[in-house]
Amino acid sequence: MLKAYDKAGEISYSLGAFPTVELIKRRREDIESIVLHSSLRMTDELEKILAPVRDITVVDDKSISRIAKKGNVYMAGVFRKRYEDFGSDTHVTLVQPSDEGNLGTIMRTMLGFGIRKLAIVGQGCADAYNPKTVRASMGAIFSLSISVYPEWGDYAAAHPENKMLFMLDDRSVTLGSVTPEAPFGLVFGNEGSGLPAELAEAGTPVIIRHSKDIDSLNLPQAVAIGLYETTKHIFCGDINK
Questions:
Q1: Is the full-model pTM beyond 0.90?
Q2: Contact status, residue 114 vs residue 231, Cβ threshold 8 Å
């Protein structure tokens, strides 16, 4: 019988078919088991996907109910969490993020723009491996390298890359006016409080201009725009080439 998710533990869950299939494809070596609900309708395609993990696949309705807490989950993965130092590389940094849903959405957006390295800074912030994060990422988490740091100083010591700090400061320049030299880090603050003012000297403060009809963009929107602007030279060529 599986237990409810424990943030301090070494195990997490992928809830639902889509993230679990991504787990099987991308991180098979970390899988403890695949758990199916007896109501799941098997298809030839699903049988083919499950073939490499059939020896660790079980049908267990009670465990599904315990870890999912919702009635629409028919497939789950039980896997070991993985954190890894990714060295000097282009990445996204989130300082004290507070919402697991936002964190998962950001992971999926990162993968969509080809940025596969994520640093999370702060204690008591959103949990990268909370099942809610995993599900919101639609399995993108299994294609990312994730590092966590308790304090900014720990992160800065490990990552000397150029940094674009998304924050409102007297020295801030518009996002489109900066062409960062790779490798670089795109650094974003907490959903409510943003980045602390004292971090403005840690890189280049940038802002995303928008109309005065709104106070601000939400965090996933800001990350998406930052990623688009800094990768458009890769993705905005002729689609017929």
A1: yes
A2: yes
